[in-house]
Amino acid sequence: MRTSLVLLSARLLDPLTGEFLPQTALAASGGRISALGDDRRIRALADPSATVIDLRGAVVTPGLVDGHLHPVSGAELTHGLDLSGCADLDAVREALAGEVRTLAPGAWLHAWGLDPNVFGQRPVEAAALAPVLDGVPALLLLFDAHSMLASPRALELAGVDGPRTFAQAAEVVCDDAGRPTGLLLEDAACELVERAAPRPTHAERRARLAAALRDMAAAGLTGGHAMDANGDSLALYAELDAAGELPVRLRVSPWCQPGADAAALRALIEQQGTGGALWRTEGVKLFMDGTVDNGTAWLERPDCHGESTHSFWPDPEAYTHIVGELHRAGVPTATHAIGDAAVRHVLDSVERAMATGERRVRHRVEHIETVPDDTLRRFARLGVIASMQPTHCCDYTRADHTDNWSRRLGEERASRAWRCRDLWDSGARVVLGSDWPIAPFPPLGVMAGARHRRPSRDLSLPPHGPEQALTALEALQGMTVNAAYAAGEEHEAGRLAVGHRADLTVLADDPLTAAATDLPDLPVLLTVLDGRPTHRDASL
Question: Does the N-terminal or the C-terminal CB of the chain have fewer CB atoms within 10 Å?
């Protein structure tokens, strides 16, 4: 097999030990690492068609993998006005006013990244943004992507003039007179208004997705665990893959929503393993609750507003049945569970499923924002993977607990936020991700957040729960060897070894010795997917 890539004068970092390998060069053939050795030996393997790159001492790690992201929906949701940098209502109003001035008459305004903390003690409602949005149809996605604010004109165009009843935990929030406040909680409510807005064409959506994936590759990502397959997502992946334009390897887990019948479940099972050269459908994504900030999480005790008391599934036992059926079919699940009651129920359901037979399936829990001691110890015992997004803690909570998330939970539960350290020390397999578009996707920023737990906007601020920080090596493992394990790929991914995938990230210096606050700025010099460069810095 012809050698496709040769990397010379490299420092090859082993994420298991944190040490550099004795070899200084690497060759790839057929998408796999075919040889490791010294520069002279590996250079001799290069045939005329091979790409040969002298790294001049740069550091090579296994390709960095985001354990939880939403490429297609993220590419669509982040099209429009970015409000994530607005720290107060005045800044939000100023940004919206500027965007309104650019709109054609009757055009919709789309914005994303709105932080509920900008409302302070005020309710999260559209009235706070009047008269900036007077007569303008606008949809403002809150940072958690589980809720949005719709302007009065948007509600009018969608015909939403009062409360609605949904089959899942969702709500058109209304005032005491039954008039919508503009706040829409969870997908079913948001979709009522989204359907009234103009939709991008398939070609536009493909172009946005391709651009987002290229940016991910440039940030050092070689892979991602995509937690949805909504709409034409799979068709878009297939098109890019067939055209040789898929720069990130994707493991895609379609959703299973409340109300799924036997036929829907059978279709999900039959879909497993389908895909293309660089993407495949594997696993199923479920939701056990919503979010703390919205009052739609599932907590063992209500939050300070008396909310977050119910499961996303009207009948939690129906969820347990679904998990059991998927487990028996050998299908891994990934369940969004934020509140302590939600996490407990997922673990209970997995334990019941495991009791039905000897089959071992690697189930996951996503987010795990607050859990008591007795719950976290069960992850290792049951072999359930803890999928964590440390930048959620960094960017949307505060060390002094004055943020919306912490105020809702109270001191006891806010003090056990994103227990990465405790889960790791209890023996759980911890995987790190961004949950993009909820938080930025650059993997060095995710790894840095797991280490410093400070707001990325202002790294001089104190950390939230510094005792829960991971070490530099653990953070690297969370996006390499542990991500490979979570996907059942530990024998072919996550390490620099002959026969493993030639998915590689090349950094200007050692990510283990870089200060946590400096890590996001460490240059990504080269990203390699399946033995071919998907990003190459001009300095190489």
Answer: N
